[in-house]
Amino acid sequence: MYNEQYEKRGLPFKDFFIKLILVIVFAFLFAWLLPKFVQPAVITNAKEANVDLSPLTSQIFADNLDRMKEAAISYYTDERLPKEVGESDTMTLSDMIGKKLIVALVDKNNKACDVDKSYVKITKMENEYLLKVNLKDSEKEDYILVHLGCYTYCDTYICEKKSTGVSSSLSKPTSSVPIKDGVDDTVYGDDNNNSTTPDNPDSELPDPGDEKPEPPEKIKGYLYEYQKNQDAKFTQWTSWSNWTKTSCSTPEHNCNDKDPKCLEKLQRYDRKEQIGTYVKKYEKKRQVLKQTGSYTQKSCSKYNYVIINNTTYATTTTTTYKVVQQVITSNGQSSGGWVYNGRASYKNPPRDTATTQYKFVGANYSYCEETCTTLPDYYYDSYVWKGTGGLSSVTSTTTVPGGSSSDTSSDSSTSVSASCGEIVTKTIPIYGYITESEIATRNEPLYGTVCYQSTKTRKLLDSGKTMTKWSKYNDTDLLNNGWYYTGYKKPIK
């Protein structure tokens, strides 16, 4: 009884331990056998690991080339095609992607193709167009050449030429030089990647012909058109002519000495000089004594009276006092109590006084150039009062000549009287300062711009011409002597 219970109690632990071992063994076998089920073909050496994927690679590369070609053909419509023979237009893959003509291309390694070194280039030939499609991916670079034209079987403006079989396995160019006037001077590589330049540069670029071209074996090669410009011939230029006056609107004329129409040159010279004179007026202000009024007054019969600038003067002269302007009719003479005192020049006109007064004669000018900065000198004849008895100043409170004191009358003027035996009524003149303008004129030079011209001429002897020659490609004798490619060529049959 005891043993049965003991054995029954220990059995479950034993079973569990055995099951655990079996699970571990089974898991180990599963992990070891699983790769054999997933990859039944066991690679046993390195040779079996080199799987040939070249067909797949070539197909992907060819598909990418074809996609670039079709995108280019659809893009080059009439207005986008080159117009002149030899003219080309190039688009990189980057440009094509930017214009939404194509999406980015990837190679078999799922790497993007080079968007700068992959490109299409279309060139206008004599009768059609040549399209070069170049593709570079992560492993290789190659191109195809496609002949395009407007053929009767085209559905679009231009399409691929059916009669021309263009190889898609041409050698990859190893280096290139610029195209000269439409001639492709590409250097191609041989199988050993050594650069070689073919004798006939069109051996790799079939010349486009008509829709049914002649068999290639009938064309021996090509001649290329060269041209050279022969300059015009002229006589020697004459010497420049003497300067002559001309209109200031006359334009100068210069031209290229090689131009057959360049037969005369004209140069112009402008300068400022006197073209005439004009009258200029100068004006100066001066204080001149003139009679401003008079009044009657009882006064001594032996004296004459006068009021000058609010001052009363008495004189025993029998000549009535008058200012110079009233008595002098001509210059250089004494008259009416005034004695001529000579002539003098003044920068500023002088002021008259009761006993010295001036009469304007004129002005003197020194010659001036373009702008006159000197003012004229004003000339005056001067006169001094020499009347008998002279002039004595008197007032209403002073003793007038004759010993009699003056008294004041009821009017606003000063009352003058004298105990001179007899009082008479006299008219007394009143003189005051008046501002007058002394005007002088002079002829001054008038300046302006005067234009002159000088010319020289020559005669045309020969208008020149353009010479044309046909020769082999890269004819150094011609190229080194000024000849150049025109871009045209013709086959040698």
Strand content: 35-45%
List low-pLDDT spans. Answer: 1-8, 38-52, 164-210, 396-419
Termini separation (Å)? 123 Å
Largest sheet: 6 strands, mixed
Q: Work out the helix count.
A: 5
Please trace the helix and strand order, writing H or E for each element.
HHEHEEEEEEEEEEEEEHEEEEEEEHE
Tell me the helix content. 10-25%
- Quick one: how many beta strands? 22
Q: Based on helices, strands and strand pairing, what is the structural class? A: mainly beta
Question: Cα-atom Rg, whole angstroms?
Answer: 62 Å
Q: What is the overall silhouette?
A: elongated
Folded structure, characterized:
The radius of gyration is 62 Å and the shape is elongated. Residues 1-8, 38-52, 164-210 and 396-419 have low confidence and may be disordered. By secondary structure, the protein is mainly beta. The protein is 15% helix and 37% strand. The longest helix has 37 residues, at 2-38. The protein contains five helices and 22 strands. Strands 11, 12, 13, 14, 18 and 19 form a six-stranded mixed sheet that branches. A hairpin with a 4-residue loop joins strand 3 (129-136) and strand 4.
